[in-house]
Specification:
By secondary structure, this protein is an alpha/beta fold. It folds into 2 domains: about 25-80; about 85-140. Helix content is about 10%, strand content about 25%.
């Protein structure tokens, strides 16, 4: 059964405003720090935090570990995203996996300072000046 009625636009707007389904439930989320697009984002209540963080374009070295990205926003929020101080890398060598924590922006050639890798200094990887990425895996068994 379909019911149609003629209602004035003023009455219709007041019905929507008084309804629990009113579309005016928004939160203001301010994001700054280690992101490419800092600023204020107005989002509907219930938006996932990961959606807002994704919009702000976090840098490669943004520290997102402290955030629960599956959390839903229910009120105004200020997010300051810090930059990582150090990153973790893995080095495969002779069937072993060595784990290192190094400062952000450490380069391949800087790994020569680790005594655990001293026997591999001639490896081509140590000639590269490229910065290491978080959780990068370096395989020294490959030439």
């Amino acid at each position: 059964m379909v019911v149609s009625a003629k209602i004035s636009s003023k009455k219709c707007i007041s019905c929507i405003e008084n309804s629990s389904l009113a579309p005016n439930a928004f939160c203001n989320v301010v994001v700054d720090g280690s992101v490419s697009r800092p600023g204020s984002y107005t989002v509907p209540v219930g938006t996932l935090l990961k959606k807002i963080v994704r919009k702000s374009k976090p840098s490669l070295f943004a520290d997102l570990h402290f955030l629960d990205l599956e959390q839903r926003v229910s009120q105004d929020l200020v997010l300051h995203i810090e930059e990582l101080k150090e990153i973790e890398i893995l080095v495969r060598k002779e069937g072993k996996c060595l784990r290192f924590r190094v400062p952000v922006k450490t380069r391949f050639c800087d790994l020569k300072t680790f005594s655990e890798l001293s026997s591999d200094f001639s490896h081509p990887a140590f000639k590269s000046r490229r910065a290491l990425k978080p959780f990068e895996i370096i395989d020294l068994s490959l030439e």
